[in-house]
Specification:
The chain has 243 residues and is α+β, with helices and mostly antiparallel strands. 25% of the residues lie in helices and 30% in strands. The strands form two sheets. It has a six-stranded mixed beta sheet. The relative contact order is 0.16.
Length: 243
């Protein structure tokens, strides 16, 4: 049954590796780039840093502006890249991933987000779904790749999952103690989303899967002297042109 062909179907492009099975060579290339950043004095990794590191590691392209939720592209595949700072990456079981600013006012015309929080929650999820649809309109495959990091201990956890659309009917919404909205799965009661009225920040709660790759950079990376770098590249006073 797996060889069934559908008339009009476009051919699926090859993946760089199977979903969730991040290979050693990707981890090794990422670690080298992290070491480089540590050696030149970069104190931490932000989202754009990780997007560039991941794209370089798979031979992909880090978009200057995301397409939907697609930050990195490779031969028809796309990734939404996320990084989370945590004191104990190796034992982390659940994460809060900031996943965009979803404004029901701007995107869905809901002027009063408090009037009907069920309608607000639905709109928040539909905005996410629309971004996923936009990315999948240009790509065959869409994933979320996450790096949990502690730069001080040089411990990292890397994993990826499929970027899925959420079914609004499966969730119910309520106020949190901080007067934000929390979305819980109706059947399991699991807290899956948080949305903030102020700023419209949308957060997805994800479990760290068993397939996550854990790695540590063992030695203390020596800091390069800026003067040594300048000398290495052959800097000369003639490089400076006074206007």
């Amino acid at each position: 049954m797996s060889n069934i062909r559908l008339r009009g179907n476009r051919p699926r492009r090859n993946d760089p590796y199977p979903l969730g099975e991040i290979p050693d060579f990707v981890v090794e290339k990422m670690a080298k780039q992290i070491v480089h950043r540590l050696a030149i004095g970069m104190g931490d990794l932000e989202g754009n840093d990780f997007g560039t590191i991941f794209a370089n590691s798979i031979g992909g392209v880090h978009r200057s502006r995301p397409l939907g939720v697609a930050d990195v592209e490779w031969n028809g595949c796309a990734w939404s890249v996320k990084t989370v700072k945590d004191k104990t990456p190796f034992t982390k079981e659940r994460l809060r991933l900031i996943s965009g600013r979803n404004s029901p006012d701007y995107s869905a015309g809901l002027e009063n987000a408090h009037a009907d929080i069920s309608a607000t929650g639905r709109a928040v999820l539909e905005i996410w779904n629309a971004r996923v649809n936009e990315a999948l309109g240009e790509h065959d495959d869409l994933r979320v790749v996450v790096l949990v990091r502690n730069i001080e201990t040089r411990e990292f956890v890397l994993f990826e999952e499929e970027a899925v659309r959420f079914v609004p009917e499966e969730y119910e919404w309520s106020y949190t103690a901080k007067n934000n909205l929390a979305g819980h799965h109706k059947m399991t009661g699991t807290h899956r989303f948080t949305w903030q009225f102020h700023g419209s920040q949308f957060t997805v709660l994800r479990d760290v899967p068993p397939s996550a790759r854990r790695f540590r950079i063992v030695p203390n990376v020596p800091l390069l002297d800026p003067e040594d770098i300048i000398s290495y590249v052959g800097f000369d006073q003639n490089w400076i042109e006074f206007i």
